[in-house]
Design a protein that fits this description.
The protein has 348 residues and is mainly β. It folds into 2 domains: 160 residues, Sandwich (Immunoglobulin-like); 142 residues, no CATH class. The protein is 13% helix and 45% strand. The protein is built from 4 helices and 24 strands. Strands 1, 2, 3, 4, 7, 8 and 11 form a 7-stranded mixed sheet that branches. A hairpin with a 2-residue loop joins strand 1 and strand 2.
Length: 348
């Protein structure tokens, strides 16, 4: 149920941004952290969109460990003007995490759609299994028979970089010239879960933070503010963040047990790097034992925070992003059966 609610929250939030003219159709070939991206390029005089979609949409280090989850990633190349899928597509796919290459190989599908099932395992390297095309020497898949990538992938939470180059279209034996091959650069998020037992006035309050952007640092409680605090590594490189091709999206999820001193007010304030971001909090109160509070920080929010950070840190781009969740009667309220969506696109 929690996975379903989280998925609905993200979909509702993204739909809200569409109505404000800010996101969903990512009209470029570069992204930064969701479960699905549609990226655009061109093939001669034809528009070529690549849909990269992970199923199930919510994948975390916990669900992989506890549920033996084996996510499937779909790659679908189509003409955005006609909505027709390209056939005879050969993909050269590289997957990286924290700058390290995990997989780099050739894949092919005569119908165009490629499916790769990820089987996370603690091994030294990734092994790929599937039917090999005898001429292209590329792994081939169909919807009911995906290629399998088994090994150290999706073991750690955070962003995974998918670099996809299109090598053939329409005719599998006709290679697109190197300088005309579309390349797509995408990022998919695996949730990184971290648990903490907070000692509040001698009583242990268990809580959990789930980050869909990077690994979470220490989770602490500030007695004076009665706040849950945590950190996350973040690159404040404005060239990367300002790139119009990059749709930055930072999603953090905090579980607050109830009843407890942390959930007694029934509402919360959110702070990131000292800036009030209560307007981008979404609070799911459907669970009787906990509130689930979502920080949903879009590109305008992140850019404001990044600019302030660089002014105060001598333009040092590599640092931490700090978060605080504070019980407050004046904050975003937990809604049963509905999520509070009163927010705008900036920080106060």
């Amino acid at each position: 149920m929690k996975v379903v609610i989280s998925y609905i929250i993200i979909i509702i939030f993204l739909f809200g941004m569409v109505t404000n003219g800010n996101l969903l159709k990512i009209d470029h070939a570069f992204g930064d952290g969701l479960f699905m991206e549609q990226l655009s390029a061109s093939l001669g005089d034809r528009a070529a969109d690549l849909l990269i979609k992970m199923n199930p949409p919510i994948v975390t280090t916990e669900t992989i460990k506890n549920q033996a989850q084996k996510p499937t990633v779909e790659f679908k190349l189509f003409d955005s003007k006609t909505n027709q899928t390209f056939k005879e597509v050969t993909y050269f796919i590289t997957i990286q995490k924290d700058g390290k290459t995990l997989l780099s190989d050739w894949f092919f599908n005569p119908d165009g759609d490629l499916y790769i099932e990820m089987q996370p395992k603690n091994q030294n390297q990734i092994s790929v299994y599937g039917e090999l095309d005898p001429i292209l020497n590329a792994y081939s898949s169909r919807a009911n028979s995906p290629v399998v990538a088994s090994g150290p992938i999706f073991i750690d939470g955070g962003l995974y970089n998918f670099i996809v180059r299109i090598v053939t279209v329409d005719y599998s034996r006709t290679i697109i010239p190197d300088d005309q091959q579309p390349e797509f650069n995408s990022w998919l998020s695996i949730g990184a879960a971290k648990n903490a037992n907070l000692d509040i006035d001698g009583k242990i309050i268990p809580t959990k933070v789930l980050s869909y952007y990077d690994e979470i640092g220490n989770i602490t409680h500030d007695k004076a503010a009665n706040s849950i605090n945590f950190t996350m590594p973040f690159s404040y490189d404005l060239k990367r963040l300002n790139d119009p091709k990059n749709a930055v999206f930072v999603h953090q999820e905090v579980e607050v047990p109830k009843p407890s001193v942390l959930s007694a007010d029934g509402a919360y304030r959110g702070v990131a790097n000292g800036k009030d971001v209560t307007n981008v909090l979404m609070v799911d109160g459907n669970n009787q034992t906990k509130d689930v509070v979502h920080f949903m920080m879009t590109k305008p929010v992140v850019l404001q925070i990044a600019n302030d950070y660089l002014k105060n840190n001598s333009n040092n781009t590599n640092g931490m992003m700090t978060f605080s969740l504070i019980p407050s009667k004046n904050g975003s309220e937990a809604m049963n059966g509905n999520m509070n969506m009163t927010m705008d696109m900036g920080v106060k």
